[in-house]
Amino acid sequence: MKIRVKYLYTNSEDGLMEDAVVEFGETIESVRPYEESEKVDEHFEHHVLMPSLVNAHTHVYSALARGIPLKSYNPRTFGEILEQLWWRLDRALTEDAVMMSAYVAGIESLMSGVTTVFDHHSSPGFVRGSLDVLKQVLVDTIGMRGAFAYETSDRDGEKVKREAIEENLRFYRENRSSKSRGFFGLHAPFTLSDETLSEIVKLVQKENIPVHVHVSEGTEDLEDARKKGSLPIKRLGPLLAPNSIIVHGVNLQREEFELLANKEVWLAFNPQSNMNNAVGLPNWELAKEHGVNVVLGNDGFGYNLIFDVRALVLSQKLKARATTAFGFDELKRIVFDNNYRLASSVFETKLGKIEKGHQADMVVVEYVPPTPITSENFMAHFFFGMCESWKPSRVFVGGKELLRDGRITVIDVEEVYRQAVKVSEKLWKRFDELL
Ligand SMILES: [Zn+2]
After folding, report:
1. Is 361's pLDDT higher than 90?
2. Which end of the chain has less Cβ packing within 10 Å, N or C?
3. How many CA atoms does the CB half-sphere of 334 hold within 13 Å?
4. Cα of 3 to ligand 1 centre, how many Å?
């Protein structure tokens, strides 16, 4: 397939190219300036073609929580938000609800140009096979790339914990393709005993399995670790195999950043979720100072990562009370370098550049720049302009077109939403009964 496009953001040394032709199969075959008389399959004027997005931390299972009635919901701490909402919701999830959540999350990710997700799952009533259901919908049916993990925890008792450990190990061993991968999922240090952690250390070290874990989102992890005479990152230390994803890190201490400094791990920021839960924001200055690799996720706060792209920049500037604290270089490093480095490393394929040999995971977005656009100021156009009206018209994964003219081509979206409403009603009823 050959596409001619007005603007091409390669995310490599070429930067922005004007009037270019991209030829691709599963991977990019060539990128070159358009020449008169060259025949192309499609011509996109007034459009930008660029790599599609990676969401480095999300929760597919939260998709059917939208509008859920919250009787007696009055959380005063982050822990109470978990107890009164999320732990109640995940206990109410059945196989049907997990499946419909995956359809909705997949559709909404794809519609916003997200083609790779790192999911963190919990459904204590349906643990065994839950990661397969997510993968079957997101990867096999919709066609995205997905890395899945089950949040192991002591909070749901011994039986669920055993099932979670087995589910993580089994899924990790069975999924080694460029489309689906497994992580060892852990909920958060404060819901994991020292005994459970030391059992898991042996399992993940044996196979060098990366973990995906929330750390210091609220103050609970720090308080719990201090009671144990430790710090959350110290407790997790031996678990952090290369490519592990540490999520949030809002209350990480300087000493913990020092411990992370020489590790090949990723710290996922989720600014919208942090602001919504009023837990504070992670310390970008300390992360930068210690060379900790930051990636961007959205914690299942919807599935359109563009809102978190904007929130990332704005929230970090506000936190530092300095407009220079977080600029477009930082935005590029996190969203357009690190998120793709993480995905390329985990899926063992080349992602994130429109360059020969890279996977043709791409998005085409309509955008008419009202001012000059160049390689140097592309990030400013992306942030101030493209994000403003972000609505991809085409999305490709591995060269396969999954979204055309703004509509998903691979499944019947209207039918999914009809089913999702029915499944949500039942889910909400079970949620209500768990009060
Ligand atoms: Zn999360």
Report:
1. yes
2. C
3. 27
4. 37
